[in-house]
Amino acid sequence: MRTATRLAPSAASPATPHARVAVVMPAHDAAPFVRRALAGLLAQELTDWELVVVDDGSTDATAEIVAPFLRGRPGRLLRLDSNRGLGAALNAGISSTTAELIAYLPADDVVYPSHLRSLVEALEADPEAVLAHAGAAHHAQSQSIGAIEGFGLQLVQVLHRRTPDRWVEREELVTDDLGAMLWSKLAVRGRFVAREESRARGSTIQDSGTG
Question: What is the tens place of the pLDDT at every residue in 136-147?
Fold first, then answer.
C-alpha cells in the first residue's frame, strides 16, 4: 500500500502566489554544492520567480544551508520525512506552488544568468509550445544544444507550462528516465522548443539531484 508523503514544517518566506516561474530544486545530501546552485539563481536576469527546495530526506546540512537563503526571498523549503526519490520530490514541489511556469534546478547544477529569461521568452513566442529547453554544458567540456546523447533532456535544461500531469514516482516505476517520468506526457500536450545556446551546466548528469 502506498503511503502519503509527509512534509515537515517548512522554513519559508510568505507564499508568493503571483510568481510567474516556480523553480523546483530537488536536493538530497546536497550540502557540498547547493550554495553554488543558489548563487546561480540569484544572478538570473528574470526576477519573477519563487524557489521551492525539496529536501528529500537528507542526512547532512542541506536544510540548514538553504533556510537562511530563503529568508526575505520568495519561496519555501519542504522537507520529506524520508528519501522518497526524484518523482515524489518534484511532485511535492510543484504541488506547493501556483506558478504558471515550472523550471527545475537540481542542487548540484548551475544556470547561467539568461537561463530563465530565455526559456520564458521561447514559450511566449510560441503559444502552442508546452516546454522550452536550453542547451547544456556537461561532462567536462561537452556541449549539447538539446537532449544530451544517451541521457535525454535533463531537469536543469527545462521550463514548461503547468499541466495536470505528475511525475512518475518510485513506487510506480523505478527509473531514471525523465522522458518516461514526465516529458513523454508533456509531448502529447504541445511542442518542445529549443534555445540552442548553453545556458545551464549539468554537474552530474547521471544524478538528477535526489536519491
Answer: 775 455 555 655
Reported as a single tens digit per residue, the pLDDT across 45-87 is 999 999 999 999 999 999 999 999 999 999 999 999 999 999 9
No. of helices (H) and no. of strands (E), the chain: 6, 10
Q: Which segments of the chain have a pLDDT < 70?
A: 1-17, 138-151, 196-211
Residue 84 CB coordination number (10 Å): 23
Longest dimension (CA), the chain: 45
Assess if CATH 3.90.550.10 describes domain 19-202.
Answer: yes
Nearest to 106, CA basis, from 131, 136, 73: 136
| C-alpha cell recorded at residue 205 | 548528469
Nearest of 108, 136, 109, 151 to residue 194 by alpha carbon: 136
Question: Measured between alpha carbons, how far is 23 from 5 in angstroms, rounded to an integer?
Answer: 20
At residue 176, what are phi and psi to the nearest 5 degrees? -110, 15
